[in-house]
Fold:
Amino acid sequence: MSEEKSLNFIEEIIEEHLKEGRYKSIITRFPPEPNGYLHIGHAKSITLNFTLARKYGGITNLRFDDTNPVTEETEYVDSIKDDIRWLGYEWANEFYASDYFEQLYEYAVDLIQKGLAYVDDSTSDEIAALKGTPTEPGKDSPFRNRSVEENMKMFSDMRAGKYKDGEKVLRAKIDMSSPNMLMRDPVIYRIKHAHHHRTKDHWVIYPMYDFAHGQSDSIERITHSICTLEFVPHRPLYDWLIEKLEIFPSKQYEFARLNMTYTVMSKRKLLQLVNDKVVDGWDDPRMPTIAAFRRRGYTPEAIRMFCEKIGVARRDNLIDYSLLEFCIREHLNETAPRAMVVLNPLKLIITNYEEQKSEWLKAENVPNNPEDTRDIPFSNTLWIEHDDFMESPDKKWHRLSPGGMVRLKHAYIIQCNEVVKDDNGNVIALHCTYIPESKSGNDTSGIQVKGVIHWVNAPTAVDAEVRLYDRLFTIEDTADIEGDFKEYINPDSLKVVQAKMEPWLAEVENGSRFQFLRNGYFCKDKTSSPALPVFNRTVTLKDTWQKEKKKG
Ligand code: ATP
Ligand code: MG
Structure:
């Protein structure tokens, strides 16, 4: 047995092909349709295509499969390019299926001339009615046996704009009784008087996806055209067209799409979430899009690690979102500087610390590097988290309570002596005393305490808004949803809390990532202003979700 990681099934195929000399080198492509933003499923496909080419010394093209003028936009083209680069990949060539429209038209003419395509005047309903069912063969269209000349004339008239949308289509002449419905004379060209984001108004006929995709692969001499399992039934048509057109024999290989728990992964559904304002745009940090992940503070390294870990499956499966979060934590734990930020602040006054006095304490910026420190101010007025105080706690409580003692991280041990309340009985401040001999790093007090809490110096603290995110859906497998999937949106997927921060955090660049001690990893949001910095919680420190699931 070799020590090396075993090959995935596509690598096995490629190694076989290289060994037998079928190809000298390989070419893969990532072929998005520019009709939405990329999501984590696309990241899986991107990682696969680019790493295969890199591993076997080949190249990867970025090809926009832009054959549907109605849904496609330049905004999406730009975002797709940004996202691929952010993930860490650079394509060899940027191509567009629309660049091949003339060539694809020639291919269609070639099929007509070979007697393998015909113009059909039937409506789409009529075509559907004659299609048959998976168990019953279809019937020939009355237009199936038009002469080559008539087909040539009509197809050229289609191109010239002599017909209205839907009046005529071009169909491949294959087999109306094929057990594969897609082989029953599929439509390969349709009339659409629509503006295209690149070819503008030059064309009024557009190739169907199945006619454009494989032919584009072939034009680019793609050796391994990798797609997801739903394209398995399309493969015979893919092969048939290439064979009949006698063009470069690209081959299609299918792997399982990535599905993840508690989210949806189809551009159509994501677009619906955006349009219905369930989320605040494609890059709302709760979305599974690359743009959202970036804004939330996920790193490209972590996403690539995740794609590697899940491997390449041949059967559909559902990947636990927690695995992605595990990868994020792994990477951020090593790279994110530490900071103290107090959520839901509660004032704490140290009554035996001189009012005018302040001092500088040392705090580590990263773990395991005692050299890398910053100075943090300390005075008699601090902020701590409301949740770190409990008025009548049970025995297991190690944080602050009346009479109780805790250590303030990087500072002193304190004891809570008095709880200050407002007229409604809400706790609004704590009065404590500190033990001067208990300073961190130089503790001679001999006092042992179990709890350590973090804090921020009140006079220098800066206000911030912190956004805490949770799963977007309440249901693990969103494929199980019947009816409106929006009914399963987690109402607590976003909680906004007020915070007090160390002041330098107000100045860091948007997009910077930190570990806020005890609270998780956070990323500065693009909506930050000098007056109010905003931070998104990337991920909690531990997988609290698993725990809660068990509790629930
Ligand atoms: P969606 O269904 O989300 O709209 P799509 O398949 O229509 O996705 P495309 O832009 O056509 O989106 O996809 C580009 C490439 O990404 C295709 O090769 C497709 O197979 C792949 N891809 C899309 N979704 C996933 C997924 N969930 N897992 C793996 N690969 C995917
Ligand atoms: Mg698609």
Q: What stands out?
A: Residues 40-55 form the longest helix (16 residues). The two ends are 44 Å apart (CA to CA). The first strand starts at residue 27 and ends at 30. DSSP finds 13 helices and 25 strands in the chain.
